[in-house]
Design a protein that fits this description.
Elements (H helix, E strand, L loop, with lengths): L4 E3 L4 E4 L3 E7 L3 E5 L13 H6 L2 H10 L2 E5 L4 E9 L4 H5 L3 E9 L3 E6 L15 E3 L3 E9 L11 E10 L15
Length: about 180
């Protein structure tokens, strides 16, 4: 059930992504989560300041696959192309920024949002920022490069690969996972 991504400038099909998401990010990063793990956050709560601004908490949640915070190093517009499986070696070699994460999916839903959505929480994730996916554990592989303009966040492309796993992968981070 993949759909092609069409580049209107070149007139070519760029990829066979499952889904493409355009995110205008105000904060300095993204969050990936299954709503089950954000259910305890109250509507309007400033979860960012009270909990998620602590790098140790971000690190712990990332290693557990709960609410995964990823620093993009900048606000801006990001285009996320979602793929199934792992990237090919040549694809890995073509990207300067690489990050492997893990996530647990419940209720067949993965949400991708601006990290600053945690400043005043609203559990309703915009439909276009939701990936319908089987429950289970996944590797998330994020790949990106500096945009042509040389300015991070300036219509920056991010490829996200989702590979199902039999259990939560053992991951280790030092602070906030970073893709820049």
């Amino acid at each position: 059930m993949s759909s092609s991504v069409f580049d209107s400038k070149s007139g070519k099909i760029l990829s066979n992504a499952i889904k493409t998401i355009c995110l205008d990010v105000v904060g300095f990063g993204l969050i990936f989560y299954s709503p089950f793990f954000a259910a305890s956050i109250q509507h309007g709560e400033d979860y960012f300041e009270t909990t998620f601004s602590d790098p140790a908490v971000v690190e712990k949640q990332a290693t557990e696959g709960r609410i995964i915070g990823v620093s993009t190093g900048t606000p801006g517009r990001f285009f996320l192309e979602i793929f199934s499986g792992y990237p090919e070696q040549i694809t890995l070699e073509q990207h300067s920024f690489k990050l492997r994460l893990g996530v647990e999916i419940r209720d067949r839903t993965l949400c991708i949002r601006d990290i600053f959505d945690l400043l005043s929480w609203d559990a309703a994730c915009p439909r276009e920022q939701i990936i319908d996916i089987d429950d289970g554990f996944y590797h998330l592989t994020l790949l990106s490069n500096e945009p042509e303009s040389g300015v991070l966040g300036d219509d920056q492309d991010i490829q996200l690969y989702l590979q199902e796993l039999p259990e939560m992968p053992r991951l280790k981070y030092s602070g906030v996972p970073t893709l820049c």
